[in-house]
């Protein structure tokens, strides 16, 4: 096997967050920040070593131990085609509980649970890729090192967990010869990557809608409906946006649970909000598809700004704003920019819509300065660019 690097982008939800959990459509796009994974073969070491730079933690397992785990699993579930994901995850949890008690660095930090989930994903996705390999009885023969780092802030709504899952799935499926560098972007291979990344999302999130792993695998901009799949939007070019980090951490799973409680308390009322968001997504799609074709772009941009505002007000209505987010909205509005929550809300990121040639506009630099002076993180990027990328090192 050769050494390679995977780059899996993070994402934003343009419209339809939360509503998507209730089977309404969402519009999602990739951003220009990513998780990177470097895979290097260690011909002389019989060890699989993992370095999680963002979590400042390492984990290793001997190739022999990992292969023994796989042999035991094959003996216990002797199927011709691997389809035992549920059983595999259970066995991985038991196996890792044994190993991690001895291994986990910083064992008593509050990060322990986070780190455990990240390692379960690695073990499970590697085992799944090997067990389902098209090469009969595929075996790991040499050690290798994974170095995983990210440009995404973790736990902030930019899909760091999905992009982590996509990077792992792409690396392990390539390693286990499900595809090669020439065809990893074929639709059936991206679907396989996205499905395994969804497995990782289930470990980290509980019950994700699937929108994050889908967009982080396929890239671009897409319309997604839970349980029904997605359609890619044919955009003219990526959209300029400003990502503003409120620096308020929150857990997506917790916010989704709070919104569920609200929707159970006031089903008719909250359903009306989901219906409004669905109508908004339907209005937005043709605008995103033709924006940038130079015909009345100013007018289209103003309509998109309005939709940003309406969507944000609907999200406020379900209680996923936060005083720090409100501060960002008002700084942006004062300078003439429209912004909205993206993802779960209650903290995390706000996205601000940026016009063409924004960098030549003095007001943009004033906005950036004011947001930074107020203590927020600011990063200008695009929405709807390239997706997953793998290259030989
Ligand atoms: N680079 C990484 N290395 C290891 N684990 C990671 C990495 N990025 C994300 N994770 C895992 O994902 C978890 C964060 O997932 P969470 O869903 O809370 O945030 P998010 O994906 O950034 O936000 P959202 O799902 O709202 O877009 C971390 O606790 C960790 O387990
Ligand atoms: C809040 C939510 O709709 C978006 C998370 O990026 C949750 C989900 O879709 O799983």
What would your notes on this structure say?
The structure is a single chain. The protein has two domains: 3-233 and 387-392, 2-Layer Sandwich (Ribosomal Protein S5, domain 2); 241-383, 2-Layer Sandwich (Alpha-Beta Plaits). A hairpin with a 3-residue loop joins strand 6 (221-225) and strand 7. It has 393 residues and is of the alpha+beta class. The model has no long low-confidence stretch (mean pLDDT 94). The protein has eleven helices and twelve strands. It is globular, with a radius of gyration of 22 Å. The strands form two sheets. Strands 1, 2, 3, 4, 5, 6, 7 and 12 form an eight-stranded mixed beta sheet that branches. A four-stranded antiparallel beta sheet has the order 9-10-8-11. It has helices at residues 63-76, 85-103, 112-131, 160-175, 187-205, 211-218, 252-265, 267-290, 297-317, 323-334, 362-373; strands at 4-15, 26-42, 47-52, 57-62, 143-150, 221-225, 229-232, 239-245, 339-341, 349-353, 377-383, 389-392. Bound molecules: adenosine-5'-triphosphate and (R)-mevalonate. Adenosine-5'-triphosphate binds at residues 35, 52, 54-55, 114, 117-118, 148, 150, 154-162, 164, 204-205, 212, 251-252, 343-344. It catalyses: (R)-mevalonate + ATP = (R)-5-phosphomevalonate + ADP + H(+). One of its GO terms (cellular component) is cytosol.
